[in-house]
Amino acid sequence: MIVMKFGGTSVADGAAMRRVIDIVLGHADLKPLVVCSACAGVTNKLIEVADAALQADEATVGQLTESLRARHLEAAAELLLNAAEPLRRETAAQIEELSAELKRLAEGVVLLRECTPRSRAAILSFGERLSTLIVAAGFRAAGRDCRLLDARELMLTDSVYLNAAADLAETRKRCKKAIQPLLESGCLVVTQGFIGADARNVTTTNGRGGGDLSAAIFGAALGVAEIQIWTDVSGVYTTDPRLAPNARTIARITFDEVGELAYFGARVLHPDTIRPAVADAIPVRVRNTFDAEHEGTLLVPDALPDVDGIRAVAIRKRVILLSFAMRSANRTSRFLAGVYNSLVNLGIEALAAQGSEHHYVLCLEDADAAASLAREFREFADVDISEAAVLCAVGPRVAGADGAAVVARLAQVLQPFEALFVQHHVGNISILAAVPAERGDEALRAAHDLIS
Ligand code: ADP
Ligand code: ASP
Ligand code: MG
Question: How many CB atoms lie within 10 A of CB 172?
Fold first, then answer.
């Protein structure tokens, strides 16, 4: 058994879905579980539906839900162009039914003027429910035995509706019972990424980009031989190819390295994806739906130290940098204890931190939290808030004895960009550097040019 997960661009329309079907059929002997995202851009549109409904903007809700309905009908018509009439009719009727349900739900929000995380998750779930219904019909049109299973009956989660964590033990039990026999019998199985349900059967979602995480959880639950993440680029690149045109595919990268890159902005993988796979040592391969022959990138526990220094760089934008210049060095510990206590109370994590006895810098995501910390501690320190981008460089030699040399090279390259800090702690597998927000992309390209 393997898991094949297809992201939004891979199922963007009928033509893309046809490619997905061909790719999966080419792997049919490996007994694939097919996990799909919503069609590209649909989750964003569903967020707009929820927002418009909350504003009681009925006209916008009407337009958006109608355009989503039309888009999915069109994708199905294109994919099923040569399919038998009953299958075409049945699929269209299912799309109509889901579209009507979405509209009713949004109208409910309009009436209530309230969109709780629970309602929002319910609205967001329609993207994956619609795309998978069309893809499953595509397999049937190709003459294959195919079952569409609702991920909400497989993935048990907690009740954090928009960022739900899975109950791995129960999900494993359900997957073994519902999916494994079907796959073993040669039937194809399609299910949704991103969605699940809590113990009371209430729909949940696992965070933006969570389809990758769902794929990894399903893969771990079934103990598959490989988890394949099919996307719109040929694997994990040396950096985001949209930001540096000379970026190139990395053949092998370690789980740790890719986890760090994902956390610091490389959206090619959801940052938590690798966790379930690492725990069970399941190989993960990132591949390109639009270049299916390309081997892509294999994620492995250990990779060869085959590059000198940096293997890849990522950039996390919209970071708030909070600098404290302490007035009294001998109270630093007490001061920091206070700062971290406030972070805990605010329920937020620092992305990175760097400090000495006089000066301490925190990188946060949340501007309001930064402002509140600045107010709270201005009595003890001169506080400065600025917008920054954080670069993250990973590589096989970064953590070792050669790390200092790599840091020095990076610091030198970033100097013209007025780097706010370049940070590396012994043993860390990554180097972090903060630059002013507006210099982020340029600094990323300069750091990327260090990769040999
Ligand atoms: P999907 O919809 O398939 O999940 P995403 O858009 O979430 O796809 O992720 C793929 C995108 O990630 C690519 O189009 C690319 O622009 C971006 N990306 C960012 N960093 C990297 C990287 N290091 N390697 C490859 N792609 C990256
Ligand atoms: N559809 C969801 C999103 O756009 C999940 C995913 O695509 O992974 O965030
Ligand atoms: Mg993604």
Answer: 19
Is residue 99 within 8 A of residue 72, CB to CB? The reply is yes
Residue 269 Cα to ligand 3 midpoint, Å, equals 6
Distance CA(184)–CA(32), nearest Å, equals 10
Give residues with Cβ within 8 angstroms of 34, minimum separation 6. Answer: 4, 5, 6, 20, 24, 135, 188, 189, 190, 191
The Cα 44–Cα 280 span in angstroms is 33
Pairing between β-strand 188-192 and β-strand 32-36 as defined by DSSP bridges: parallel
Query: Helix, strand, coil: what percent of the chain each, to 5?
Result: 45, 20, 35
Task: Provide the token pair at 320.
Answer: 């708030």
Report which of 346, 337, 390 is spatially closest to residue 371, judged by C-alpha positions. 346
In this structure, which topology does domain 2-232 adopt according to CATH? Carbamate kinase (3.40.1160)
Looking at the chain, which residues constitute the CATH 3.40.1160.10 domain(s)? Answer: 2-232
Rounded CA separation 179/35 (Å): 12
Nearest CA-CA partner of 78 in 48, 42, 36, 39: 39
Query: 3-state class of 408 per DSSP?
Result: helix
Q: Which residue has the tokens 């605010």?
A: 346
List pLDDT tens digits, range 161-218.
999 999 999 999 999 999 999 999 999 999 999 999 999 999 999 999 999 999 999 9
Paired strand residues for 147 = 189
**What superfamily does domain 312-448 belong to in CATH?**
VC0802-like (3.30.2130.10)
Give the pLDDT band (50/70/90) at residue 234. very high
Q: Which of 120, 129, 204, 208 to mutate to test the pocket of ligand 2 (most atoms within 8 A of CB)?
A: 208
Give pLDDT tens digits for 317-360: 999 999 999 887 677 888 889 999 999 998 888 998 888 878 88
* Residue 148 CB less than 6 A away from ligand 2: no
Tell me if 43 CB under 6 Å of ligand 2.
yes
Which tens digit of pLDDT belongs to each residue from 13-33? Answer: 999 999 999 999 999 999 999
For the packed helices 85-112 and 42-54, what is the interaxial angle rounded to 10 degrees?
30
229 lines ligand 2 (CB under 6 A): no
Rounded Cα gap, residues 121 and 101, in angstroms: 14
Mutation test of ligand 1: which of 20, 268, 290, 316 has the most ligand atoms closer than 8 Å to its C-beta? 268
